[in-house]
Amino acid sequence: MEPIRKEEIDDQACGSLAPKSKPCPRPKPGEAAGGCSFDGAQITLLPIMDAAHLVHGPVACAGNSWESRGSLSSGPSLSQYGFATDLSNNDIIFGGEKKLKDSIDYIAGRFAPPAIFVYSTCVTALIGEDMDAVCKEASGRLGIPVVPVNSPGFVGSKNLGNRLAGDALLQYVIGTGEPELEASMGVNLIGEYNIAGEMWDIEKLMNQAGITLLSRITGDARYKEITWAHRAKANMVVCSRALLGLAKQMESKYGIPYFEGSFYGAKETTYSLRQMAFLLNDREMERRVDRLTEREENRLSHDLRPYRKILKGKKAVLYTGGVKSWSVISALKELGIQVVGVGTNKSSDEDVQRIADRVSDDTEYIPEGGASRIIKTVKERKADIMIAGGRNMYVAMKEQIPFVDINQERHKAYAGYEGLLRLAKELVDSMANPIWKLASSPAPWDKEGSYDR
Amino acid sequence: MTVKKRSKPVSVNPLKIGQSLGGILAMQGCYRAMPVVHGSQGCSAFPKALLTRHFREPIAVQTSALQEMDVIFDANRNLEEALNAVLSKHRPDIIGIIGTELTDVAGVDYQSMLKSYKRERNMRGGLAFSVTLPDFRGSLESGFSVTVEAMVDELIQQAGLRGQRNVNSRQITLLPGSYLTPGDVMELKEIVSSFGFEVIALPDISTSLSGHLLTGFSPLTRGGVPLDSMLQSLQSGLTIAFGASMERPARRLHNALGTPYKVFQGTMGLKASDELLNFLHQISGVPVPIRYCWQRENLLDCMLDAHFQFAGVSALAALEPDHLRSVSEWLDELGVEQKALITSYETPAVAEMEREVWVGDLDDAEVLGSGADLWIGSSHGIAGAERIGAAFLAAGFPIWNELGSYMNVSVGYRGAMEWTNKAGNLLMRREAEHRESSIRHR
Ligand code: SF4
């Protein structure tokens, strides 16, 4: 069998600019955490809301994963359907290509989606199904794009899956359509998945500044807007770790300049909007952005005052991946919170560099080790709160550590100026909750040994 | 009755949950245990995330983290590495290796690898066993029961008992099926012990996934049945299994040790509870505790009050096989029309039901159950229930739209009452909403 991960990709660093930096680390047996590449590919593509997403493999890959993301839709919901070829023992012995073809036909006939994404999984990759050929044939016959996503779980980490999904977009989607209106002044957002509706806050800001959002890649996207992404004048990469490669290739293929930015924190948000206007090279727009960001920042700093008072000097441990590992630090700093520990497990060398630029010297880096390591840091550094992903939420609860969820499953949007206010409120609310006192005081009948934390 | 299947090439909104998740769940009910999924990262990460979301508890699980080339060349090297890491770092009492479809298709022989590993390391004192749970067969239920069976086998081996046991006739081993919540298992333990028996549940998620506050984090399971109790359970005078899928592990105990067993296929409703309590009464000679006599009356009164609400009502249920059977019996007692019964895979227990059962997905549930007033199933059904305009009653796995569902009780009189009231309330609210909207739209 031919390896799916070709050498060039193998050599490439995880979303890093520097060609020499470390490749995605091999997960350690018995100590590994986190999803597979198939998971990563889905995270990237599922927010294309009107498309059908068909998982080719035994049912569990799809059965265990559908409806697990907090990526919101403003309309169509077909991407929330779980489609699986649900291969049985027999299919695996005799091959599942016929079933795949029939499944594609069935979905096209019944749901009439604008496109179908087909994901390979470990088993279908292992038995050497020719998914590309089936998709190509179906696409020609049905007259709709059927996009193969070759990212079976065992080729590597979630991050690699993000990138392989980006490759699929570049190879099969981007450049296959034209915008309806003359919209040459547009910007694409790459790697923003509309978790908890964050995209909507960002979109509002861009609209206010008069910047056209041409293609959303992929938060709350419609298939066709991605087909014309090559017509943008600039790309903003929101989650660099995942889709920087896509931006780079769009630069070399279509000459679209890109920048990496974030919407966590007022400063980062202002910088990102400015950068867009700059790349669009429009004086009037730059002035508009300046006026808007000044107004928003002023209003925000007024609204934040009561929260800042409470949050000043509080200590947090932040454990999240990629771009958030540094961009959230900026947001927390603006609130007066000191980050005393930060996870670097899923950060590229550049992310680590950016973290270093933003934290003080005695901040502890947590490169790996999972839950127990994070908790150790929280305790040793006497942190007031832990900010991490849902996976660690209940671990924190067991230790009675205030917790704010920052990853995909969360329900609150923290991007932009409004988002920072929401984050401040969330942090205050969770630290001020009466449960911490109640939980740490013993029952009246065993008062002797009080265990104050 | 035969089990039917709609013909459709693709699964749309799957009901089926991979077997391996069932295996991981079973391991959570043992103290200081670690399931090691022999597969790629995702095969442990997905179930971990899903179980965490359902139980709102940290879930213990590790992976052999296979990558492409490992699968093709030497998957067991990874497994060995994983075992080394887990053993040296966490010293678990129990390790269960869960083979996936990946190791199955690649033909990896980890069974004999484990054997030699145990020999070489001179591993004694703990339990280590392996199961094969590819996701293209069975579902959560079979994964759970196969794992318990392997666990029982390993216990018997470990204890080295050959006929000479000290049978403790006051001790009963409970084998609770995968569909029972921690709250259910707790209730069953309580009911059985109220007749004067010592009870050991195998596995026991009621002390691990029920929301305890043991401080100190451990990557191993917290709570659950400890190994010495598990070994002690071999002396039990009787095994009681809940759910037909648990009959096989019960039979193992019977074949190896001669322990008699009793299987309760249904666990919900008046009749099922009567049967259980009467059985316990007869084997113990102890009168049924007064609180259950009260509860029985409470239930009957509740059913009388509720029957207006259930008259002319129809329901669909999409659940794992044993659960489906149980729920169906409860619906029978309420006189609710069963528009569609859908399950994840065929088992003898559903095949012998007097009703039509479909093996299918949640899309089939929508089609076959169209017009139903009540949808009973996991949180994946919320959207479908909305589309067909049915009230939604969360049951089975996974549930993420409710707090504390893991403490819900469906067994015994109390459980039947809780469910009857809950379903009745949902229908009442739905009726009120309909009334309101029809007034508004006049
Ligand atoms: S690792 Fe492979 S088999 Fe496991 S969930 Fe991911 S794609 Fe599916």
From TrEMBL, chain A:
Keywords tagged on the record: Nitrogen fixation
Pfam family, one: Oxidored_nitro
The protein's name in its UniProt record: Nitrogenase iron-molybdenum cofactor biosynthesis protein NifE
Record pathway: Cofactor biosynthesis; Fe-Mo cofactor biosynthesis
GO biological process terms held by the UniProt record: protein-containing complex assembly
Family, per entry: Belongs to the NifD/NifK/NifE/NifN family.
Gene: nifE
Superkingdom, natural source: Bacteria
Domain annotation Nitrogenase/oxidoreductase component: ranges: 36-430
UniProt region (Disordered), positions on chain: 1-31
InterPro entries: Nase/OxRdtase_comp1, Nase_comp1_CS, NifE, NifE-like
Function: This protein may play a role in the biosynthesis of the prosthetic group of nitrogenase (FeMo cofactor).
GO molecular function, one term: nitrogenase activity
NCBIfam families the record matches: nifE
TrEMBL record, chain B:
Domain Nitrogenase/oxidoreductase component: 19-426
Cross-referenced PROSITE patterns: NITROGENASE_1_1, PROKAR_LIPOPROTEIN
Keywords of this entry: Nitrogen fixation
InterPro entries the record matches: ChlB/BchB/BchZ, Nase/OxRdtase_comp1, Nase_comp1_CS, Nase_Mo-Fe_CF
BP term (GO), one: protein-containing complex assembly
Pathway: Cofactor biosynthesis; Fe-Mo cofactor biosynthesis
Molecular function (Gene Ontology), one example: nitrogenase activity
The family this protein is said to belong to: Belongs to the NifD/NifK/NifE/NifN family.
Reported function: This protein may play a role in the biosynthesis of the prosthetic group of nitrogenase (FeMo cofactor).
NCBIfam families assigned to the protein according to its UniProt record, in alphabetical order: nifN (TIGR01285)
Protein's name in the database: Nitrogenase iron-molybdenum cofactor biosynthesis protein NifN
Classification of source organism: Bacteria, Bacillati, Bacillota, Bacilli, Bacillales
Gene behind the chain: nifN
